[in-house]
Amino acid sequence: MATAVFYFHNYLRKMLKKEHGAGPSFLYHFNRKASIKDIIESLGVPHPIVGKLTVNDTEVGFDYILRHKDIVEASPLTPPVNPLVSTPLRPAPLERISFVADVNVGKLAFHLRTLGFDCEYGSNTRDAELVERAHSQKRILLTRDTSLLKRKLVIHGYLVRAQNPTEQLIEVMCLYDLKSRIKPLSRCIPCNGILVPVNKEAILNRLEPLTRKHYESFHVCQQCDRIYWPGSHQEKIVAFIEKILKALRQKGTQGT
Ligand SMILES: [Zn+2]
Fold first, then answer.
1. Cys-Cys with 46: which of 18, 149, 242, 256 at CB 3.0–4.6 Å?
2. How far is the CA of 224 from the centre of ligand 1 (A)?
3. For residue 189, how far is its CA from the centre of ligand 1 (angstroms)?
4. Coil, strand or helix: which one is 255?
């Protein structure tokens, strides 16, 4: 029977099935021809969260066929991850940063929209549909469900580790280095549509008397037609963004 040595680094080790997870490395026995991607997933680690794979100190892709006496090292996605750049594991880069969120990270989806990021989300979206959207629309799949990330169609995905939605947002922003891409008040938070400026005259009949009296600048959602204007709601959003930026700065100074 053939054998290979596997090293799983950092939090990937926690994903391993119990019989492999105790030490820093383990000997793997095999007698079938299989890609390294299939073997890694059979050991318990979903392939999208692997950031780098080396075999005998040479970087390889997921289609590498494991050979006798190979020494394999697997490292997790490590900040900053740039999905717009080709890597041996993901040779086809994304054309833009956008997300699709699983129901278990719904609040994270709304937080991402608040900062202007494109994040599709539906509370009734089924797993197969989530995966299909991530694949066909070339979006990063965000979830806390390990099995979802093992679906074959998922190329770019992330297993969100924090439980608190604000911490989840900071986690995702750090991972993909999104700080410079924030566009506050540019996206409709309930529907993910893009906000565009609109003349007050064009929507005058839809405004409450006090809003009509006190505000001059308006935006409308291209998708759901919801109207936005400056006010306490926007002040809350700006305060929220400042809180996130402060947390990111603190993380930066801690070097994490
Ligand atoms: Zn909308």
1. 149
2. 4
3. 7
4. coil
Q: What are the tens digits of pLDDT across the range 173-223?
A: 999 999 999 998 899 999 999 999 999 999 999 999 999 999 999 999 999
In the reported structure, the alpha carbon of residue 223 is separated from the centroid of ligand 1 by a whole-number distance in angstroms of 5
What's the CA dihedral at 181, 182, 188, 191 to 10 degrees? 60
Tell me, what DSSP letter sits at residue 60?
-
Q: Quick one: 160 and 245 in the same domain? A: yes
Q: Which of 96, 87, 89, 92 is nearest to 117 (CA)?
A: 96
Measuring CA to CA, which residue among 166, 139, 155 is closest to residue 49?
A: 155
Ligand 1: centre distance to CA 191 (Å): 4
pTM of the predicted structure, to 2 decimals: 0.93
Name the token pair of 202: 């064009």
* Residue 220 Cα to ligand 1 middle (Å): 8
From ligand 1's centre to the CA of 217, what distance in Å?
17
**Structural domain span for residue 63:** 2-76
The answer to whether 193 and 175 are in contact (CB under 8 A) is no
Expressed in angstroms and rounded, the spacing between residue 43 Cα and the centre of ligand 1 is: 42
Q: Do 115 and 57 share a domain, yes or no?
A: no
Cα of 176 vs centre of ligand 1, distance in Å, is 25
47 contacts 62 by C-beta, under 8 angstroms: yes
What residue type is 160 in one-letter code?
Answer: V
163 plus 118 within the same structural domain: yes
Ligand 1 centroid–CA 122 distance in Å is: 13
Q: Are 101 and 119 contacting, i.e. CB atoms less than 8 angstroms apart?
A: yes
